[in-house]
Write a structure and sequence with these properties.
The protein has about 400 residues and is an alpha/beta fold. It is built from 13 helices and 18 strands. The protein folds into 2 domains: about 270 residues, TIM Barrel (Alpha-Beta Barrel), CATH 3.20.20.70; about 80 residues, Golgi alpha-mannosidase II (Immunoglobulin-like, Sandwich). The structure holds alpha-D-galactopyranose. Alpha-D-galactopyranose binds next to loops. The site of alpha-D-galactopyranose has 9 residues, from loops.
Length: about 400
């Protein structure tokens, strides 16, 4: 009898835990997270003043009002641990709680970075064997987002005799931190970073991931961005409210691509329902960069409440149509030109399952093209895009 009671208590407890876990992940990141991350532009040069400046610029540039929320500190903030094992910040971050208070006072949220191994990717202190302690420290500071980067944890996985066992260790390590975050009672978005290994999209939600990187690191070059973005084929079914594929942070405004290429970057990420984490210096933006990052219609596609990730509809040589179904029944379509020269792209409405006259809006041009029939043909600049919103 006693055993029966114990078993039913256990079942009840685990049910309750899984309900809270799920409840947390659906309210958190109900749409793809939007914000800024220090790594792409600042790397190890990130510091307290730079993070405050990013928060200030997020507000003054209009990005906050366009929907950007998270100010995320990436790697290199960590020092060692004190004699109780509590993680310390290095001299670049004299007071993390005060920094969080500052960021919160601007109506923004603060994110931080760590990993399950002893060392982070840049060789700083990781959370290995201090997961619960670190989660509590983050919560006490007022952290709202954690990017958790595999890196040196692979040394434990490699030691395993079977690859399956190594794989399971990685899942366990992510779940351990997820549980530690949940136990703090503070909603903290959990971002998995392990470069898309082992089809992370298939198990990311089960270990509490709100988003997971699907590839290696992006670079501020068209080839890198295009390889990653156009490589996201067939992942759509794994994304949805609370759990997103993450093709890595934005490079918009970092200077390595043309305006057309950055519009391609932003359009593709919006169709992919990707997190929009700006990776540039927000305090030094050209009007074009601000315009790309804050275009309301593009952001509305990315943040569409239905949360359906888009996919490729058709390809004709190096021009490709990618589409995403939106909550109001309309369809966002990017006609992309991957050629190194201008080319004509075409959208056939029957490829969208639409017959008769359809209404078409050119999103970047901010222009209604009226009622069209059968197809839309358009000249697209090299590496550029025409982004449309098509409705019946
Ligand atoms: C890895 C990640 C990057 C960044 C660096 C920091 O390379 O993929 O996004 O966080 O580590 O060291």
């Amino acid at each position: 009898m006693k055993t029966l009671k114990a078993i039913s208590l256990l079942i009840f407890a685990s049910l309750a835990l899984s309900v809270t876990t799920r409840a947390q992940s659906t309210t958190l990141a109900a749409t793809p997270p939007m914000g800024w991350n220090s790594w792409n532009h600042f790397a190890e040069k990130v510091d307290d003043a730079g993070v405050r400046a990013a928060a200030d610029a997020m507000v003054s540039s209009g990005m906050r009002d366009a929907g950007y929320v998270y100010i995320n500190i990436d790697d290199t903030w960590e020092a060692g641990r004190d004699d109780k094992g509590i993680i310390q910040t290095n001299k670049k971050f004299p007071d993390m709680k005060a920094l969080a208070d500052y960021v919160h006072s601007k109506g923004l949220k603060l994110g931080i970075y760590s990993g399950p191994g002893p060392k982070t990717c840049a060789g700083f202190e990781g959370s290995y064997q201090h997961e619960v302690q670190d989660a509590q420290t983050y919560a006490a500071w007022g952290i709202d987002y954690l990017k958790y980067d595999l890196c040196s944890f692979t040394r434990f996985m490699d030691r395993e005799h079977s690859a399956d066992h190594g794989h399971q260790m990685m899942l366990d390590a992510y779940e351990k931190m997820h549980n530690a975050l949940v136990a703090t009672g503070r909603p903290i978005v959990f971002s998995l970073c392990q470069y898309g290994w082992q089809d992370v999209w298939k198990w990311g939600p089960s270990v509490g991931g709100n988003l997971w990187r699907t590839t290696g690191d992006i670079e501020d070059k068209y080839e890198s961005m295009a390889r990653i973005g156009f490589g996201q084929l067939s992942l759509a079914k794994y994304a949805g409210p609370g759990h997103w594929n993450d093709p890595d942070m934005l490079e918009v405004g970092n200077g390595g691509m043309t305006g057309d290429e950055y519009r391609t970057h932003m359009s593709l990420w919006a169709i992919l329902a990707a997190p929009l984490l700006a990776g540039n210096d927000l305090s030094k933006m050209t009007p074009e960069t601000v315009a790309i990052l804050t275009n309301r219609d593009v952001i509305a596609i990315d943040q569409d409440i239905a949360g359906h990730q888009g996919d490729r509809i058709s390809a004709l040589g190096l021009t490709e149509d990618w589409g995403r179904k939106l909550a109001d029944g309309s369809i966002a379509v990017g006609i992309f030109n991957r050629n190194d020269a201008p080319a004509e792209g075409v959208l056939r409405f029957e490829d969208l399952g639409l017959k008769g006259r359809v209404h078409v809006r050119d999103v970047w041009a901010g222009k209604d093209l009226g009622e069209l029939e059968r197809e839309y043909r358009v000249q697209i600049p090299a590496h550029g895009v025409v982004l449309l919103r098509v409705s019946k």
